[in-house]
Amino acid sequence: MTLLDALRERLGATAPKKGCDHGQCGSCTVLVDGRRAISCLVFAVAADGARITTAAGLGDGDALHPVAQAFQDDDAFQCGYCTPGQICSAVGMLDEVKAGAPSVIADDLDASPTLTDDEIRERMSGNLCRCAAYPNIVAAIGKAADR
Question: Which Pfam families is this protein grouped with (predicted)?
Answer without folding.
Answer: Fer2 (PF00111), Fer2_2 (PF01799)
